[in-house]
Specification:
The complex is a heterotrimer. Chain A is α+β, with helices and mostly antiparallel strands. Chain A is 35% helix and 19% strand. The chains are: A alpha+beta, B alpha/beta, C alpha+beta.
Chain lengths: 492, 463, 417
């Protein structure tokens, strides 16, 4: 990439020429993007409703380079935002105020794997699945498995505290992070936690996980490795009513079984998934549960039998068991790629990420049905049911503005109902910019004040990921953007 | 169809270049002919990114599928000019379609990038005079590739050199480095040419009870370089109770033409093949080269794209496309008669992109190989990532191609195999070249060659 | 042993609202230091108070707020005793899967503030994995909450993590929501005594790929083994180093694991191997948990090293006459200094080789308990990393007047590193 004066004036709309020159001296021509036609793809992530082009994208290859760019931003008071694979569904990587986007995709080395001590040290750009593939055959794996695991990075998982189907038994990202090296907005490099447990002082690692890039840039993560389960059984229970399915979920949990995963898909999803993957799902079923138990070989069959009995007593018309690893893989593929398959049902769709206590699943499910009827919007559902994490998918045609309005209203009603039932507006996608206006519905002014104070400790100048996660004090948090239309989106 | 490709579209280079120059500018914008809904299928989730070899290598979203779709769509929308930088990002795409496998939304990426490139190339050709056009590219495309026999002649010196081990000597001495850069590159890609044997007869009868009647596609490059694999394929089909017909009038599948923007010449070749293969008279048209197979399977789509009004053409090409099967896919469907001969080998299977991604044939070749007694099939890291061959990509984007070849080789060698198995000519050439540069002598074979050896009870010999 | 400048007054709020008002009044008025206490089992953690203040007891905030058992969560006030909490959960065959010593006294709030754990942390994690929501009051009297009542929730900063292990320096925890686990039907411990520590080290390496899935991997040197066996009232071979492995699950699952562990350990030639089952196992789990805590010894420390270094560290401590119990699978080594260490200087010289060890091993050593007048002569939290500056900033953000346990973490002169 050659630089001419003409180029400088063209791309330097938001940042000065002196800043860019300094930046180029750090990153060279191959480590930086500043041409408008190449910046365009960085204007959004998996959330496409709001867009803003960064002024420049840099590709650091080391912590030192991250420090240099952060220092430079501090010197010139330029905002910056870290980005991994850009799979956020909440606009986590949106460069709201422009400035520098720090793409961590070239920091992707797996630096250390220590099986005896059950940890690995990775750079933030390592793709989640690549770590697990790297560990194949060792008897260990990295447990958090978001549906985007084939693309999303550990750094992004760290920033958003990602979940996944197997969080039911194994917990989310924060439960598997031992430590991290972070670069704070003042350019200091701090090691939080590490390979040894119980480092004294506050659990800043735990606090940093899920802070959505508003505290600083993580440049190394020490993750806990988990033994592979000795055995697993994957079941598919078919129900004629959604209520029977959701009640069976409560029964299973109530029986003291913690499945490794417990997922629900309703009829609409079954239809789409069957069209995409031809698994052989019964198209007339109202709901299916995908249930996986894992553990010792001596234990899993008992648990599977118990679950089959509970489902049958709960009205399941059929319970199947995956007979081979390949069949299990296909079942999981159907589940993990269910959202994408929705494209086959509708030109546009909008996914929500609410959470309710799992016993409230029948209630929220009925509410969603009623909302759909009231607004004349078709809603299909796929739930991380064991966790109470719901993903209602609202189908619409974005060319019909009245439908669009109804979808937005219905979405908000569903999320507010989740709060009313004692839940949350996001189980795994994060607040980002998308749900910032809902923060004051979940938290009161004191809660948000305290959260702002915490951010102040890490990011006092506010240059790092401005206008994310927390609404501006005393306002609704959506000053910078008005949500006018829901987007077509995939989800996890 | 009376259209004869050997005398019209793919005649002499001069004529073709002339016709390209004379071709009218495509109507409207570049990419304007693409079905816009295909862009809308992309929900921008980004799950494709890490499946893309060039994104993995560069970490730049402009070099990833989601980014490229964004760029193409922005060009079509008029938001973005097709500047050299944008062109460079699109050119760097291997068209391996690994992203299609990763995509949950069913985006047909190939049906975006290929027509986009075709219109891009047409626009370029319209701008360039015939004199300035890239003679090397055209010579290879229009004079050599379509004609198996010409290719065989062209490669004869190479074959001779290889047999005499002169090429090794030259490589060692660095003499090859003085050849024009790309000829040199081609030289380094040529596999160790084995005597391929005589051309296949037009008919090979089933052995044992007859189970099916198939036509075998032999192609151009493959017939020149990998005729031994064709023989092996035919014998394996015979062993499995198939009558095998090998139509004499078949021609190149047209993939290289199509992918480099020469879409109408490609269509002409497709028509010739539709005429050569009596699709209705066979149970399947069997292909043993991944790239050709996926092109043949796309004939219907391409006809719809280029000549949407010609219903008869759509039916004719669609009819052929529907019968096309990769040989491993066909044998898996038919049910393989288990081979008996033991081959005590540690083997790795290398997925050809045009099999695993474009045709979604992944398990079948592995399942077939697993039935060979004694064969141990090892798994490798990143099996879904392209080796960098990608048709003529290794000639047009040499740097990225080499990076990917090294990446693939490292993954292959990590499994410590005694033999590498792959179902595509391009991959085979690329891997053999990488092996030679790494001074590693591991044979690269087609899955049918191993099955053939097992049926014949012949021990596998290195080399 | 009286602490320096023992806080004198005590305040017992009966509702969180009352607590808020009182905290706000204090912050606006007298600004006396506030020392929150629960069951008073861990008051010696950290640096002693420098100035008299008010002890704030959560003893009257002990209600069960909500227990939707089918959701496997419970919301309780922070002053609830751990035993009482366990009793409530037991009725639904559930538990909080964290071992807390002195559970008849210790409160949930205290356990959270001190990040208490025990043998089961190997298989089941620590409190940070179970606290999914908190309510607290900051030093200025502002009530705040974070997390929620659902097991999966990423809205807002996870202040639960900041409060776990915060030693009452960031806020007074008034209420917490916990993620629960089903109580196991059965449990057992395999108690294996070995001739040499090196055999235990090898056995631990083997167990990293065991076909079983232990919940606890405890290493006990003879002193600790003897005391623990005695506390459990069991006649166990305790004159040699002991590896004690805990398993839980359905009865046949537990039995299968005992058999499997017995055979996996055979190649390391245990001198004695005893499987402790049924009620006896409960007593042994209890003794293993209780032994961790401070009793009459002058000094107790916790070292964090990598699990693979735990045996070597334990051997080093053992040679110094320190009685040692290690959560070996986690690299946590607890040591109690004997009465021989009667002066700060003696403690210093005794601990010096261990400090050297943890420095070399990139580990850390924390003093959990020592005479108050030793505290400023010892690095209670080990060598302070750059992260401590960040911790100070966090503390001053949430407690700008430095009223809550002002010295606990940072000592008397908080601005000196």
């Amino acid at each position: 990439m050659t630089t001419t004066d003409h180029d400088v004036s063209r791309s330097a709309a938001g940042v000065g020429a002196a800043f860019l020159t300094r930046l180029e001296s750090i990153f060279g021509e191959h480590g930086l993007i500043r041409q408008p036609e190449e910046l365009l793809v960085y204007e959004c992530d998996g959330y496409v409703i709001e867009k803003n082009v960064p002024d420049v994208v840099v590709f650091p290859e080391s912590t030192e380079q991250v420090v240099k760019v952060v220092n430079l931003c501090a010197e010139f008071q330029v905002p910056f935002v870290p980005r991994g694979a850009g799979t956020s569904l909440a606009g986590g990587c949106l460069p709201v105020g422009g400035g520098v986007m720090i793409s961590l995709t070239r920091m992707k080395r797996i630096l250390e794997v220590n099986l005896r001590d059950r940890y690995a040290v990775v750079e933030p750009g390592v793709v989640n699945l690549h770590l697990t593939q790297h560990l194949k055959g060792t008897g260990y794996h990295y447990a958090p498995d978001p549906s985007s695991q084939g693309a999303c990075t550990i750094g992004g998982n760290f920033a958003t505290n990602s979940g996944g189907p197997h969080t039911l038994k194994y917990g989310v990202t924060v439960n598997h992070v031992l430590g991290a090296e972070v670069v704070l907005p003042d350019g200091s490099v701090v090691q939080l936690g590490g390979a040894v447990e119980d480092t004294p002082g506050y659990d800043l690692t735990g606090l940093f996980v899920g802070s959505e890039g508003t505290f600083g840039v993580c440049t190394r993560v020490t993750v806990r490795l988990t033994r592979d389960p000795a055995a697993c059984r994957t079941l598919l229970a078919v129900f004629n009513s959604v209520r029977e399915a959701t009640q069976s979920i409560s029964q299973i949990i109530g029986a003291g079984i913690v499945p490794a995963a417990l997922e629900m898909m309703d009829q609409g999803i079954i239809e789409a998934v069957e069209a995409a993957f031809h698994f052989g799902f019964p198209l007339d079923a109202a709901a299916v549960l995908l249930i996986e138990v894992d553990g010792l070989e001596v234990a899993v069959d008992d648990e599977a039998r118990q679950i089959i009995a509970i489902c049958q007593a709960g009205g399941a018309r059929e319970v199947r068991q995956a007979n081979s690893p390949r069949e299990r893989q296909l079942l999981w593929k159907c589940r993990k790629q269910a959202f994408g398959a929705i494209g086959r049902l509708s030109p546009s769709y909008c996914t929500q990420d609410g959470v309710v206590p799992r016993t409230k699943l029948p209630e929220i499910q009925e509410f969603i049905t009623a909302v759909g009827q009231r607004h004349a919007i078709r809603i299909v559902n796929v739930f991380h049911a064991g966790d109470g994490n719901i993903h209602p998918i609202l189908l619409f045609d974005e060319r019909d503005s009245d439908q669009v309005r109804r979808v937005l209203e219905a979405s908000e009603e569903i999320l507010l109902k989740c709060i009313e039932l004692g839940g949350s507006v996001t189980g795994e996608h994060g607040i980002g910019v998308e749900k910032i206006s809902l923060m004051h519905r979940l938290f009161d002014a004191h809660d948000l004040d305290v959260m702002r104070s915490v951010r102040q400790a890490f990011n006092p100048g506010g240059l790092c990921s401005p206008m994310k996660m927390l609404p501006t004090a005393g306002a609704c948090g959506m000053e910078h953007v008005m949500q006018k239309r829901p987007g077509r989106r995939a989800a996890l | 169809m009376t259209h004869d490709p050997t005398t019209s579209a793919c005649g002499e280079p001069g004529r073709l270049a002339g016709s390209a120059t004379a071709a009218p500018q495509p109507p409207g914008r570049i990419g304007g002919q693409i079905d816009y809904d295909k862009f809308l299928d992309c929900v921008h989730c980004g799950l494709c990114t890490a499946a893309c070899p060039t994104y993995l290598e560069t970490g730049d979203e402009n070099n990833g599928p989601r980014g490229r779709i964004y760029l193409m769509r922005s060009v079509v929308d008029g938001r973005l000019e097709l500047t050299p930088r944008v062109n460079a990002h699109l050119d760097l795409c291997l068209d391996c379609r690994s992203c299609e496998t990763a995509c949950p939304s069913g985006v047909e990426y190939g049906r975006l990038i290929e027509p986009f490139r075709a219109s891009q190339r047409r626009a370029e050709a319209a701008r360039q005079s015939a004199r300035n056009a890239d003679w090397f590219h055209r010579y290879i495309l229009y004079c050599l590739f379509p004609y198996a026999q010409r290719l065989r002649w062209a490669l004869a010196p190479a074959r001779l050199m290889q047999q005499l081990r002169l090429d090794r000597l030259l490589e060692t001495l660095g003499v090859i480095k003085i050849l024009p850069r790309r000829l040199q590159r081609m030289q380094s890609f040529l596999p160790r040419l084995l005597p391929g044997g005589p051309p296949l007869p037009e008919f090979l009868p089933a052995l044992g009870p007859k189970r099916a009647r198939v036509a075998l596609f032999t192609g151009c490059v493959a017939d020149a370089l990998f005729r031994h694999a064709h023989w092996a394929t035919a014998r394996v089909l015979q062993q499995n109770g198939c009558d095998v017909v090998v139509p004499r009038t078949q021609v190149c599948c047209g993939a290289i033409h199509y992918h480099s923007g020469a879409d109408h010449p490609a269509l002409a070749l497709a028509r010739a093949n539709a005429a050569a293969f009596d699709a209705a008279g066979v149970d399947a048209v069997v292909v043993n080269v991944a790239g050709c197979g996926s092109m043949l399977k796309d004939y219907g789509q391409i006809a719809r794209e280029l000549e949407p009004a010609q219903a008869a053409l759509l039916a004719e090409l669609g009819g052929l496309a529907d019968k096309v099967r990769d040989v491993s896919q066909f044998l898996a469907e038919l049910g393989l008669i288990a081979p008996r001969g033991e081959l005590k080998l540690r083997a790795v299977y290398q997925d050809a992109c045009h099999l695993v991604h474009a045709q979604r044939v992944r398990e079948q070749p592995r399942d077939l190989l697993a039935q060979i007694p004694g064969l141990e099939l090892l798994s490798i890291a990143e099996p879904e990532i392209c080796c960098g061959a990608a048709g003529s990509y290794n000639l047009t984007e040499p740097e990225m191609s080499d990076r990917l070849a090294r990446r693939k080789l490292a993954n292959l060698l990590a499994a410590d195999p005694q033999v590498i198995v792959t179902g595509n000519v391009g991959c085979s050439m690329q891997i053999q070249s990488a092996l030679r540069q790494a001074r590693r002598a591991i044979p690269v074979v087609h899955p049918m060659e191993l099955l053939d050896l097992s049926y014949r009870g012949v021990a596998f010999s290195r080399g | 042993m009286p602490r320096v400048a023992e806080p004198i007054d005590e305040y017992l709020p009966t509702t969180p609202g009352e607590l808020c008002r009182w905290m706000a009044e204090n912050a606006d008025g007298e600004q006396r230091p506030v020392y929150p206490v629960g069951g008073r089992t861990a008051l010696r953690f950290g640096y002693p108070a420098a100035a008299p203040g008010i002890t704030l007891s959560t003893a009257q905030l002990a209600r069960v707020v909500d227990y939707p058992a089918r959701d496997m969560t419970i919301t309780v006030e922070a002053g609830i005793r751990m035993d009482d909490l366990a009793a409530v959960l037991k009725r639904e065959r559930q538990r909080l899967a964290v071992d807390v010593a002195q559970a008849h006294r210790a409160t949930l709030g205290g356990a959270i503030a001190t990040n208490t754990s025990g043998p089961r942390r190997y298989g089941l994690g620590t409190l940070r994995d179970y606290v999914i929501g908190v309510s607290a009051v900051d030093a200025l009297g502002r009530p705040f909450k974070a997390g929620g009542r659902v097991v999966k929730n990423v809205a807002g900063y996870d202040l639960c993590k900041a409060l776990v292990g915060s030693l009452g320096t960031l806020g007074v925890i008034t209420q917490a929501t916990l993620k629960l686990r089903p109580a196991p039907e059965a449990s057992a411990l395999v108690w294996a005594a070995f001739d040499r520590l090196s055999l235990i080290d090898a056995a631990l390496a083997r167990l990293a790929v065991s076909s079983t899935r232990p919940m606890a991997l405890e290493l006990l040197l003879p002193g600790a083994a003897t005391a623990i066996a005695a506390e459990a009232g069991l006649d166990l071979p305790a004159h040699r180093p002991v590896l004690c492995i805990g398993v839980e699950g359905a009865p046949h699952e537990v039995q299968w694991q005992i058999d499997e562990l017995t055979s996996e350990l055979a190649e390391f030639h245990p001198h004695d191997l005893v499987a402790v089952n049924a009620l006896e196992s409960l007593r042994l789990w209890f003794a293993l948990t209780e032994y961790q805590v401070v009793s009459d010894e002058p000094l107790t420390f916790q070292a964090s090293v990598r699990p693979s270094q735990a045996v070597e560290f334990a051997a080093c401590a053992d040679q110094l006459g320190i009685s040692v119990q290690a959560h070996a699978g986690n690299g946590i080594v607890l040591g109690h200094l004997s009465d021989r260490a009667t002066t700060l200087a003696a403690a210093h010289s005794l601990l010096a080789p261990l400090y050297d060890f943890v420095r070399r091993a990139h580990g850390v050593m924390t003093i959990l308990n020592c005479p108050p007048d030793w505290a400023h002569g010892l690095p209670l939290f080990g060598d302070l990393s750059p992260a401590w500056e960040l911790m100070r900033r966090l503390k001053s953000q949430l407690d700008p007047k430095n009223l809550l346990n002002p010295e606990r973490f940072f000592g008397r002169t908080p601005r000196d590193a």
